[in-house]
């Protein structure tokens, strides 16, 4: 059993401090950027059609994605999870270093920013969506570990030997649900999608990887939510499901509908 006493501040220099939460975003974006460039190069070696896409194109997309992640993630959390609190504490909407980011909101922000970029550059939306889907689990991996260090999104009670006591919350042994999510939504999702995209060459099918991301992420998140305490201000909702599970179900069906709707449009000829 582990007693959680991690300091959320990684670097403290006089009045200047850097939190692990901020570093998680920085590392996730930088490593995801690096992997995305390699994926674009590999896709060109798989099929000549992809030679029109250059790593420098993704470099140009990065600023759009950063804005989409931050704005979407923060506004998603504020609007979906804790609106009443922030209506009474408007200035705290800006305190993103303290945590409080919504994955589903961040995903919407990424979709919108990718759409704006590809529309502006007259590029294929789903190609870049697929590349983003292949690298997004990296950010999720680091982000969930940052949640663990912040002692937020903690798990339900457990008697398992790997239980964690979050001493700033209570003295109850809990599932380290943040670690479960890091391994499922981060590591495992990354390995599966990249294996299918590169080794099985499913990246040749325009938009399929994006659809699989929606489906697989929602399955992993739905399962992990059973080991995670629901947000106190929301609790359990319809059919005793958490907000995360309801949003994941929505995401799952969108992924399925996308596969069914575009099954005759997926192929490379649409480039």
Layout of secondary structure:
Elements: E1 2-4, E2 9-13, E3 16-19, H1 20-46, H2 55-81, H3 83-88, H4 103-121, H5 125-149, E4 164-166, E5 173-174, H6 177-199, H7 208-224, H8 243-262
Parallel strand pairs: 1-4
Antiparallel strand pairs: 2-3, 4-5
Helix pairs in contact: 1-2, 1-5, 2-4, 4-5, 5-6, 5-7, 6-7, 7-8
Write structural notes for this entry.
It is a single chain. The chain has 271 residues and is mainly α. It has one domain (2-9, 17-270). The protein is 61% helix and 6% strand. The chain is built from 8 helices and 5 strands. The strands form 2 sheets. Strands 1-4-5 form a 3-stranded mixed sheet, with no helix packed on it. Strand 4 and strand 5 form a beta hairpin. The radius of gyration is 19 Å and the shape is globular. The model has no long low-confidence stretch (mean pLDDT 92).
Record keyword descriptors for this entry.
271 residues, mainly alpha, three-stranded mixed β-sheet, 8 helices, 5 strands, 6% strand, globular
Q: Order of SSEs, N→C?
A: EEEHHHHHEEHHH
Give the strand content. 5-15%
Helix content, binned percent: 55-70%
SS elements, strand count:
5
Per DSSP, the total helix count is 8
Mean of the pLDDT scores?
Answer: 92
Enumerate the spans where pLDDT stays under 50 for 5 or more consecutive residues.
Answer: none
What is shown here, in short?
The chain is mainly alpha-helical and 271 residues long. 61% of the residues lie in helices and 6% in strands.
């Amino acid at each position: 059993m582990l007693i959680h006493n991690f300091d959320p501040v990684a670097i403290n220099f006089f009045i200047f401090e850097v939190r692990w939460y901020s570093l998680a975003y920085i590392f996730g974006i930088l490593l995801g950027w690096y992997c995305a460039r390699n994926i674009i190069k590999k896709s060109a070696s798989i099929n000549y059609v992809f030679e029109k896409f250059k790593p420098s194109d993704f470099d140009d997309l990065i600023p759009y994605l950063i804005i989409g992640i931050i704005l979407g993630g923060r506004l998603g959390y504020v609007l979906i999870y804790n609106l009443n609190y922030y209506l009474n504490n408007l200035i705290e909407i800006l305190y993103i270093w303290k945590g409080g980011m919504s994955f589903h909101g961040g995903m919407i922000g990424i979709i919108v920013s990718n759409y704006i970029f590809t529309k502006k550059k007259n590029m294929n939306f789903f190609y870049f969506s697929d590349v983003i889907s292949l690298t997004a689990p990296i950010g999720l991996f680091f982000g969930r570990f940052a949640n663990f260090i912040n002692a937020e999104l903690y798990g339900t009670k457990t008697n398992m030997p790997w239980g964690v006591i979050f001493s700033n919350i209570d003295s109850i042994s809990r599932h380290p649900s943040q670690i479960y999510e890091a391994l499922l939504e981060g590591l495992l999702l990354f390995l599966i999608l990249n294996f299918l995209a590169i080794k099985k060459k499913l990246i040749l099918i325009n938009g399929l990887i994006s659809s699989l991301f929606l489906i697989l992420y929602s399955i992993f998140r739905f399962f992990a939510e059973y080991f995670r305490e629901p947000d106190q201000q929301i609790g359990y909702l319809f059919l005793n499901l958490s907000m995360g599970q309801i949003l994941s179900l929505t995401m799952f069906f969108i992924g399925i509908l996308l596969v069914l709707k575009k099954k005759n449009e997926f192929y490379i000829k649409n480039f």
